[in-house]
Write a structure and sequence with these properties.
Two copies of one chain form a homodimer.
Chain A: H1 3-20, H2 25-35, H3 43-50, H4 54-66, E1 70-73, E2 82-85, H5 89-115, H6 125-154, H7 156-160, H8 163-167
Antiparallel strand pairs in A: 1-2
Chain A binds a DNA duplex through helix 4.
DNA sequence: TTTCATTTTCAATATATCTTGAAAATTCAG
DNA sequence: CTGAATTTTCAAGATATATTGAAAATGAAA
């Protein structure tokens, strides 16, 4: 397979995977494009490569910066802004985990805590069952939170398989 | 907070969280409803509780069954089908991990394997960088796959914190 | 300050996804 | 087998989400 084809397929497929994970297709594609671009790109470069509008590129790049996955790069002598993606996949994964934890897991745990205390007789079957389910989900959320913290700290050790040291 | 309110809030919030994770809102709501329902429900029950159409309920329940999160229940003497959700949250989590691994992670690794071999001079800077990014993602995918397998096997031990034994 | 390249915003539009509801298929009691 | 209850399908419609593009804002050079 030729490099150009492979890049194109990676970008397209990455976009498709993104949608499965609740990520906007274009955002995933821009991220993929920047991942496989040796040099930083301008908004115009991205527009042309992906055939999308200026506004779309602008909004999604800003989102990606918000996720900590893309950085602005200053190139001396150039007026335009350039953008580049973190190439170290472990940093990328860590960053995504951190953000999703903050944006999704933390609010979920907060909600479940609120739902744990129900007015009424604690002996009531319905109340018991509800509370049990909610507490179960909350416990799992907390456990996931802890486990992900360890993974974040473990960083590349996760990858190298030496995560055991971190867990101890 | 009253039980009824709490159930309602759980159902609504679960639907909202679901969309963030790329899961259809209604499917998440039906799952939530079945999670907090003491007894199995019919399609009509779900239609009424969530104010949604028969077709919608039918399709989403079948999807949930496909995910292994909901089961058909036969109630003797009843013609209608009843549905119930697995209440053990650790089984639920395990099941979701298994399915997402199969549906998303495995295909991703397969794709990346195809993109690893690029025609041309291996010394070429562009080819090197591309291959490096792709291989990095693939390695991470494989590592995630292994780690999730351990979690699946660890089952409730994950939760209890005794996962270390399983990792050794 | 003025000018112009560049970035940002956002209402309008387009697209993708979900939902409905009625018809078709299925199932089962009689 | 017949007919009614129940489930399933799916085209049409509704809703939610993403994209465009032009106008407004920004900011750097002259």
């Amino acid at each position: 397979m030729k490099l150009i084809e492979a890049k194109q397929q990676f970008i397209n497929s990455w976009g498709a995977f993104g949608t499965q994970w609740g990520i906007n297709r274009t955002m995933a594609q821009i991220h993929a494009l920047l991942l496989v671009s040796t040099d930083p790109l301008t908004q115009d470069d991205v527009m042309e490569e992906l055939s999308i509008s200026r506004g779309n590129v602008n909004m999604n790049i800003r989102d990606l910066i918000g996720w900590g996955l893309v950085d602005r790069v200053i190139i001396s002598g150039e007026r335009k802004e350039y953008f580049t993606a973190e190439k170290d996949i472990w940093k990328v994964a860590t960053q995504i985990i951190k953000e999703r934890k903050k944006r999704e897991l933390d609010p979920m745990i907060k909600l479940l805590s609120q739902l744990e205390n129900i007015d009424g007789n604690k002996k009531d079957k319905d109340i018991q069952q509800f509370t049990q389910v909610i507490s179960g989900i909350k416990k799992m959320g907390i456990q996931a939170d802890k486990t992900l913290d360890i993974l974040i700290k473990a960083d590349e050790n996760w990858f190298t398989g030496s995560i055991l040291k971190m867990l101890k």
